Amino acid sequence: MLAVAEDEVLSRTRGLEAELAAARSKIKQLESRIETDALLDIFNRRGFERELTRAVLQVNRYQRSAAVVFIDLDDFKSINDRFGHLAGDATLKAVADTIIKACRASDTVARFGGDEFAVLLWNLRECDARAKTLSLEEAIGATKIRFAADVSSVGASAGVTMLRRFDSPTEVIARADKDMYSRKMH
Fold it and tell me: Contact 81/75 with Cβ under 8 angstroms?
């Protein structure tokens, strides 16, 4: 009788361990989803801010170089108004693909919100970061977006800032955003 009880306890324990493993797996999957843009399958703002926080720590501790590029699509609303929101989604996907292809695997690409993207670039000088920013603007502008029978394109304005020692993520984003708006005004 005691052997039966031990077998039952062992069996129930194994069952609970399997349930716990499945629950942990599901939690991990859900945690990754809260940092990923569902439409574009890249980091969202939350995921980018987590990566930027890590980058600031790396810059402070190891004196590594990194830059943030902030990209805003020009006249994106007109695509939605003219062709519909599905065309807007196709535009966002094409732009995300263009940015990803233009960046290194070590860089981080994110949809910051709406029609804004952010890119974290590693191990480069400020002049290289500025050159990359201009090349991203050009690559986005040259991207042809196909939707149904229509072909469109969208421009972009991008600002950049280097991460500095003792920066906060908020300061970095504010500087990149300010630089982007100064580019948009020209």
Answer: no
pTM of the model: 0.85
The tens place of each residue's pLDDT in the chain, 186 residues long, gives 556 678 887 888 888 788 878 878 777 776 667 899 999 999 999 999 999 999 999 999 999 999 999 999 999 999 999 889 999 999 999 999 999 999 999 999 999 999 999 999 999 999 999 999 999 999 999 999 988 888 889 999 999 999 999 999 999 999 999 999 999 887
- Give me the catalytic one of 37, 107, 115, 167: 115
Question: Do residues 177 and 158 make contact, with C-beta atoms less than 8 angstroms apart?
Answer: no
Q: Beta 150-152 vs 145-147: how paired, if at all?
A: antiparallel
* CA atoms of 102 and 80, how far apart (whole Å): 25
Q: Which alpha helices (DSSP H) does 63-168 contain, by range?
A: 76-83, 85-102, 126-142
Reduced to 3 states (helix: H, G, I; strand: E, B; else coil), residue 146 is strand
Active site residue 115: yes
